[in-house]
Design goal:
Elements (H helix, E strand, L loop, with lengths): L1 H9 L11 E6 L2 H9 L2 E8 L2 E8 L2 E7 L4 H15 L3 E10 L9 E9 L4 E2 L5 E2 L14 E3 L2 H10 L22 E8 L7 H11 L3 E3 L2 H10 L4 E9 L5 H25 L2
Parallel strand pairs: 1-4, 1-5, 5-12, 6-10, 10-11
Antiparallel strand pairs: 2-3, 3-4, 5-11, 6-9, 6-12, 7-8
Helix pairs in contact: 2-7, 3-6, 4-7
Length: about 270
């Protein structure tokens, strides 16, 4: 009997099969992941610690989709649960952001080559101020900006030239004919909705930021520390100035769809 059991355990039928690559798609709130969820084939939902994760297929890719909630802590918590439970091959974050680059308009897209915090400041072991977070796993300082996965960044940049993005609706009821601009740039994260031209100028001067939002760097830090490839893609819903509270209401549906369209193209092209 023991020999038979050993034979069965060593046979190919009982051997552990390699896991199929899984792509995780995250957004902060419903509108940011709505188009992605609508595109899923064979969707199935599972609740983990009260957070809903939806698995399915996009093209030939197995994916899992979730809303992180708004803000850094919510984003980090959802990402940690995701990585621990699903062990995805890669993570892609989709959503909206405020523009800090004066050359960009609502509807334009920033593919994050790097993502960092604009509201973090601490002291290192030498009692010197630092904007770098501490990696609790290695006890070493993280980079000030978390780099995007090079392969995902390259593929998203190339595919962005083939996607038909939506123009921003105008007050006249028409849709802007200005082509949507896609920029590879720097995204900064903080627990603040930025609606000040002065603050926007500061973020541009201090960090050379192209866009600002409230989740990306938290997701990036978790992925960096757990060695999971990541890309953050943001479409601008406003220019992070005094008009931002009004602009985001008018433009976020289009901006969210533009970001999701690029993410869907990226997943299908993997």
């Amino acid at each position: 009997m023991k020999h038979l059991l050993l034979f069965l355990m060593l046979s190919p039928a009982f051997a552990q099969q390699p896991k199929k690559p899984l792509t995780a798609l995250l957004g902060a709130f419903g509108a940011e992941v709505a188009l992605v969820k609508q595109s899923l084939a064979n969707p199935k939902s599972v609740s983990i610690s009260g957070i809903e994760f939806t698995t399915g297929q996009i093209g030939k890719q197995a994916v899992v989709v979730a809303e992180t909630g708004i803000g850094k802590v919510n984003a980090a918590m959802t990402t940690a649960l995701l990585l621990n439970h699903f062990r995805p091959t890669r993570v892609i974050f989709t959503g909206i952001a405020g523009g800090t680059n004066p050359d960009l308009q609502p509807g334009d897209i920033v593919i994050g080559s790097q993502t960092g915090y604009h509201d973090f400041n601490s002291m290192n072991m030498s009692a010197k101020p630092t904007r770098q977070t501490l990696n609790p796993l290695t006890k070493a300082l993280n980079p000030a900006f978390f780099p995007a996965d090079p392969a995902l960044l390259k593929q998203a940049t190339e595919l962005s030239k083939t996607v038909m993005f939506e123009g921003i609706p105008l007050a006249s009821g028409q849709v802007s004919t200005r082509p949507v601009r896609v920029l590879v740039g720097t995204i900064v994260t903080g627990d603040q909705f930025i609606s000040s031209a002065t603050k926007t100028a500061q973020l541009r001067a201090d960090f050379e930021a192209d866009a600002t939002e409230m989740e990306g760097a938290a997701v990036a830090q978790v992925c960096y520390q757990l060695q999971t490839p990541l890309l953050v893609i943001r479409s601008l819903s406003d220019r992070a100035d005094a008009e931002a509270p009004l602009d985001i209401r008018a433009f976020y549906p289009t901006a969210a769809r533009n970001s999701a369209k690029l993410v869907l193209a990226l997943v299908k092209g993997l």
